Amino acid sequence: MGELNSELICKATGASAIVGSEKLQSLWSGCGEIVRVFLNDGLFDSIIVKHIKLPEQIAHPRGWNSKRAHQRKWRSYQVECHWYQHYAKHCPEQSPLPECLGVLQNEHEIYLLLSDLRLAGFSEVKNKLTVDELRACLNWLASFHANFMQQSAPELWPIGCYWHLETRPDELAALADTQLKNAAAAIDKKLSSARFQTLVHGDAKLANFCFSGAAQTNSQTRVAAVDFQYVGRGCGIKDVAYFLGSCLNEQECEELAEALLDDYFLALNRALESSQPTLDRQALNREWRALYAYAWADFQRFLLGWSPGHWKINTYSQTLTKQVLQQLGKYH
């Protein structure tokens, strides 16, 4: 860490010095790194620093290195900083996330200082979940969606989720499925014009959830979320479909998705009953359940253009996409 950055970190945390650090991961496409920084005499024993420095040309692992991709990525980090500075503190207790401790930003570089979730008991990252852990993540999303239901957030993404059609014209152009390509705008409109809108996480995949150990929770699973680069307004079912697709294989989707959807809507209704008791929950449930297949089809559109051999493209996603195309009269 450079001298200026050390000064910022110590000032934000009350620490006397940085005594060590460990790199946790590199950011996508060589855009920086996430580091755990260890401190002396401060409010925290350690914090997380997300250091963003975009190269002149993004080294995208799949070759998407356009100027548009560069601008979208930089915008995503600006949105994330704004989220942590102005919105994160309004999240409900049932949707834990890191606390923003400070931001240093110029035209080319960002240092985002966050509390270390490990100190709050969220020390585990998993690559396979039990049903209870799946429910814990869906409960996090339900509380998050209920909390921000029908709120506007003009400083965030106008439409959240990193695969949103308007931000992905290159991937659409590469899409070989002409029926899905022709239906892309109609699918997007169906989701974007939904009556019930909230803030969506925008990248609610398994890798962006941190889990508590049983010792801290008396065996009750607790979960926190990270990575809010694509948070913005949207239909909450997009987060749900994307999350299920990130951690369930084809057979598991067939066997578990319907019951997990029920769990999500139970949690959403419970949270809304507390936070927005006058909202028409039955109408919301009907609308978002009907849009579940559209959310899958929307992501399928992106994935088939971006990486047509991706493991998330399977019979389950293809079946739901076909249903949507038939409803839109685009399949024959």
Quick overview of this protein structure:
With 332 residues, this protein is of the alpha+beta class.
Q: Let me know the number of strands.
A: 9
Q: Into which percent range does the helicity of residues fall? A: 40-55%
From the N-terminal CA to the C-terminal CA, the straight-line distance is 59 Å
The geometry reads as: globular
Instruction: Show unreliable segments.
Output: 60-64
**Rg, Cα atoms, Å:** 20 Å
The major β-sheet equals: 5 strands, antiparallel
In DSSP terms, counting alpha (H) and pi (I) runs of 4 or more, how many helices? 11
* Structural class estimated from helices and strands: alpha+beta
Mean pLDDT: 90
Q: Would you list the SSEs in sequence order as H and E?
A: HEEEHEEHHHEEHEEHHHHH
Structural features, described:
The chain is of the alpha+beta class. The chain contains eleven helices and nine strands. The chain has helices at residues 3-13, 67-86, 131-147, 169-174, 178-192, 214-217, 237-247, 250-275, 281-290, 292-306, 315-327; strands at 17-26, 32-40, 46-53, 100-105, 109-115, 198-200, 209-211, 223-225, 232-234. The strands form three sheets. The chain has a five-stranded antiparallel β-sheet, sandwiched between helices. The protein has a two-stranded antiparallel ribbon with strand order 6-9. A hairpin with a 3-residue loop joins strand 4 and strand 5. Helix 10 (292-306) crosses helix 11 (315-327). The protein is globular, with a radius of gyration of 20 Å. The model is unreliable at 60-64 (pLDDT under 50).
